[in-house]
Write a structure and sequence with these properties.
The chain is built from 9 helices and 9 strands. The chain is α/β, with parallel strands linked by helices and 239 residues long. The chain binds adenosine-5'-triphosphate. Adenosine-5'-triphosphate (ATP) is lined by residues 14, 19, 37, 39-45. Adenosine-5'-triphosphate is lined by residues 14, 19, 37, 39-45.
Length: 239
Amino acid sequence: METTIKVDKLCKSYDHVNVVENINISINRGDVFGLLGANGAGKSTTIECILGTKKQDSGTVSILGMNPQKDRKKLFEKIGIQFQEASYQDKIKVAELCEVTASLYKTSQNYLSLLHQFGLSDKKKSQVSELSGGQKQRLFIVLALIPDPEIVFLDELTTGLDAKARRDVWNSLLALKAKGITILLTSHFMDEVEVLCDKIMILKNGKNIFCGTVSEAVKASPYDKFEDAYLWYTDELEG
Ligand SMILES: Nc1ncnc2c1ncn2[C@@H]1O[C@H](COP(=O)(O)OP(=O)(O)OP(=O)(O)O)[C@@H](O)[C@H]1O
């Protein structure tokens, strides 16, 4: 099984406070890996260090055998990133933004079929600023998929989406997975983690407190339900 993302002993601190501590991650091609943890646990910092947009204090990262800091240009063609808050030109239309994004890559997917797949066909001519929060979120996933990537990074996957849109996004991701695309996601929703993730890591204060499958996480806890187990791991269970 090919390893697409390998992280070894990753550490990052801000003002002498460790926010990512000695994290090891190994993700196989075609797997969906979920990075979990409470607000401030270190998920985004870990992802940014993996992507090379933040520099770690120590440790190594390899994506598709490349160093994300040194091989930035080459990697850019092969990975898709869903941004949480992206700043776009105020009046740009959905189709224009997709076209601009596609033009950044040597090869790209047909964005019209992606817009259709994510229920945004009728928004092609709308300004991005006029979209609802959930529509924007779906558009950001479309943008991440335009380069036809081998790996997709999705930070807070379905935050802000309604129930139907969440299910649609899950189905689209399962279809990507079936195509052999590797997905690294963060999520605060344990139902979607259960549906999507082959493997999870739960972070607490920057430390790995569990890594394995959802069913292994449940088995190693005193609970039967994954959400209860997750809250137990993160010490957020009340009562
Ligand atoms: N640029 C920065 N300077 C100082 N501290 C930072 C910086 N960026 C992040 N932090 C701190 O690092 C810790 C981890 O933040 P991070 O954004 O990685 O958490 P997260 O798990 O992604 O949280 P959330 O679920 O809220 O997105 C937090 O305590 C945060 O305040």
